[in-house]
Amino acid sequence: MSTIRDVAKLAQVSTATVSRVLNNDTKYKITDETRERVWQAVTQLNYKISASPKRKVSASDHSENKTHSKIGCVLSVTKDKYNDPYFMSILTGVEERLLSAGYDIAFIRTGIELNDSKILFHTFSEPITGLILMESLNNETYEYIRKQVPYIVGIDTEREDIDNVGYDHYNVASMAVNHLIEKGHTHIGYIGGSGLKGNLKDSRRYRGYFATMHAAGLSVNPDWVIDCMWDETVCIEQINHLCKTKNCPTAFFVGSDLMAMAALNSLYNNGVSVPHEVAVIGLSNIEVSKYSNPPLSTIDVPTKEIGMVAVDNLIDRINGNQLLPKKVILPTRMVVRSST
Prior knowledge:
The protein has helices spanning 4-11, 15-22, 32-45, 59-64, 85-100, 111-114, 117-123, 139-148, 169-182, 204-215, 232-244, 257-269, 303-318; strands at 71-75, 105-110, 130-133, 151-155, 163-166, 188-192, 225-227, 251-254, 279-281, 298-300, 327-329, 333-335. The protein is an alpha/beta fold. It folds into three domains: 1-47, lambda repressor-like DNA-binding domains (434 Repressor (Amino-terminal Domain)); 54-166 and 302-330, Response regulator (Rossmann fold), CATH 3.40.50.2300; 169-300, Rossmann fold. The strands form three sheets. It has a six-stranded parallel β-sheet with strand order 2-1-3-4-5-11. A four-stranded parallel β-sheet has the order 7-6-8-9, sandwiched between helices. The protein has a two-stranded antiparallel ribbon with strand order 10-12.
């Protein structure tokens, strides 16, 4: 087990400086660079405060002391923490299932927040029994958390050493594109965002779109592939630009309903009629998608059920299931409305 001296040596500072950083002592001036070195050393060495040592808790302890068990949740959101209806629906399922099983959520963090070493360390400075992880995270952060938390279940993460619950991203993209092809469209664009790898074309949704276009003998125009970085403002700006060039496809598959509604807004403001000039289909079937103008065609993803099944898997692990990690894929369905 690492000691405070190990941290000080790796960070090239004194043990007193390490102690001041860990305790957020502002009495002495410490540069941001020094603080960052200390937090990086803490994370790298998996250092734990001796006053609150962690132990792996047995299944029998959990069944007897649910109130002392701490379950955390890590969201995958790019901006406002509680404003994404897709992840909020999953979180609703998580909370309902945990409460019905006698557990509480100890904390809710985002992947972006945990990129801050100080937040990461303090979040896991107390024993955490289990974690619902909706973000793949970078390798360093993930490995640190993996050492702290005995039971982790992912939701659509790309981590193969833990259970995962989700839906088939590739298949829903194919379903959406085939719907547009059946409507007679041959010029189909894609709007989405890049994930952890930072390349939109590595995403499963884009690969499903591309493969389905190729299988139908249709070409993919790179001008019609838009990386909006899952940001509504960027999506609107990109569509505005495309409308000005007079080079729009006749249809878009959009990788989320929020981005699809941003696209509808931009098309409307540019005088483009949906679906007569450009058809739009989204993904997820969030509650407000039925109230967009026009109502949005989409693929329904059982978000609340995803959260519930993830909790069921987590509790199963806490209760002693030691089988190999499994992947649970829940069914999706087409919802056709007026935008296509």
